[in-house]
Amino acid sequence: MTELIKEWFTADELCGVGGLPQHRSSFSTKAKNEHWISRQHSGKRGAAFEYHISSLPESAQLILRNRDIKRGAITTLPMIWTIKDDAMAPTVQKGMQVAITYPPMFDGGGLYLLSINKVPELRRVQWLESQQVYAVLCDNPHYPTDYVKDLFILAKVIAALAPIQ
């Protein structure tokens, strides 16, 4: 039977993940200051809290989702990612949000969230059959096209989100 993606995590599970604090004492302060969704959980040391994945910083969410995928868990729920650079402008602007989905299967082309030098980056990807390489493209002409034999795909972009006017 296939497991679902885990949604609730204790501080012990989250310490040090994706830039989160290394120690429990500073962890609970960060969670409180950033208004993370939490619920009470009966732990080994009495009452403790679990935090919902949607409240965590995007970098921690990606790491946790990819851990679950590696162990065979699935999800049908998309995640929201905020664009960090202008490489895909004018199509997708810096600061804009996109919906991404798991598992990240390459289907021949499209927009993907890739791990580039261990940093999540949104890029357009095309498979070039004649050369047996992937073209990693940016819509912004100031960024070069890269040609690579292997990709580390974190997620596929399924929609660009814009505010309702």
TrEMBL record:
Residues 5-72 form the HTH Mu-type domain. It holds the Pfam family HTH_Tnp_Mu_1. Signal peptide: none annotated. This is HTH Mu-type domain-containing protein. It comes from Shewanella sairae.
